[in-house]
Amino acid sequence: MAPTYRIAVIQLHPKPMRIEANYAKAAQFIQDAANKGAQLAVLPEYHLTNWVPDDPKFSDLCGQWENYLNKYRALAQKHNICLVPGTIVERHQDEETGEDKLINVAYFIDNKGEILGRYQKKNLWHPERPYLTSSTHSPHDVIETPIGPVGLLICWDLAFPEAFRELITAGAKIIIIPTFWTLSDCSEYGLSVNPRSEALFLESTITSRAFENTCAVVFVNAGGPAGSSSSNYAGLSRVAVPFLGALGEETKDSGEEGMSIVDLDMRHVEEAEANYKVRQDLAREDWYYVYRDRTMTGREKL
Question: Is 121:87 a contact under the CB 8 Å cutoff?
Fold first, then answer.
C-alpha cells in the first residue's frame, strides 16, 4: 500500500527586514503543524527577510544564515517534524575575488534535526541576478528523506520543465518549491489584459508539472497580511497531484497568510505513472530527448 504523508503548507507573510519576528511566527506555525500531526512543514522563499536587496542592512542579515539554520534544525528535532524552511539567503566570501556574495538556498531537515540535502537556486528571476549567485551547471540532486525521494526547486525554477525532468529521471516522487511570487511580477502589458495573469501562470503550471512528471508538487508561496484581500502577494500555496490537481483548502485559493494541512496519498503518484508511463518512457535507451541524467543509476531509480 502506498504511504500517505501529512504536509503543512505555511503561507507566511514575511515582514521586510524583521528577521527575528518572521522566525518567531514561522516557529509558531511549525509547532501548530506538528500538533496537527504533520510529518513535513514547508515555508516560503525569503521568509526571514522578504526580498529587499537594496536595503543597506540586507547583506548583514544574510550573514546570520547559519544561526537561523541551526534554529530550524533544533525545531525539527524538538517537534519531531521534517522541515524545508523556505529559503535562507546566505552571505559567503567568494573564493576567487574575496568579495561577499549572496546565495539563495533551500534545505531539507529531517525530524532528528539532520540536514539531508540542500539546493542553491539555479534559475534566477531577472531582478535577482544583480544580487544573487546562481548554482549554474551543478546538477539537480534527489534527496532520500523520511517521506521518500524528494527534489528541491525554488520559485522561478518552476518555469523550466527541464529541472523537473532531471529530478524525476533521478527518482524524485515529491518536488518541493519554496517561492516568493507576486501578482506584480507580470509586465505592464500582461497586467493590462489580465490583472491576475501571474495567478493563472501558477495555477496552470503547478498542476501541469504534477501531471507531466507523475509526481507531487509542494508549492509554498509567500502570502499577504491576514485579512488583507487587496494584497499584491499571490499566495496560492498548495500540494498538486495527478488526477486531483490542487489540494490545500486554506491557502490554494488565497493570497493571505495561513496554513493548509494536506494528506498526500502517494497512490495518486503511483497510479499516475501506471497510467501515463512518463518515467517508463524516459528510462528507454531509445528515448527521443536527452536529459542531464549523468549515469544509468538515475534511470534505474525510475
Answer: yes
List, as own/partner pairs, every contact residues 270-279 make where C-beta atoms lie below 8 angstroms and the sequence separation is at least 24, other chains included: 270/2, 271/242, 271/243, 272/211, 272/214, 272/241, 272/242, 272/243, 273/214, 276/211, 276/214, 276/242, 278/168, 278/212, 278/213, 278/214, 279/168, 279/169, 279/214
pTM, to two decimals: 0.95
Q: How many Å apart are CA 248 and CA 222, to the nearest integer?
A: 15
Burial class (CB in 10 A: 0-12, 13-18, 19+), 6: middle
C-alpha to C-alpha distance for 155 and 132, rounded to whole angstroms: 14
- Alpha helical stretches, state H, 58-159: 58-62, 65-79
CA angle 252, 257, 261 (to 5 degrees): 50
Cell of 182: 507576486
User: Amino acid identity, residue 183?
Assistant: L
pLDDT in tens, 97-146: 888 999 999 999 999 999 999 999 999 999 999 999 999 999 999 999 99
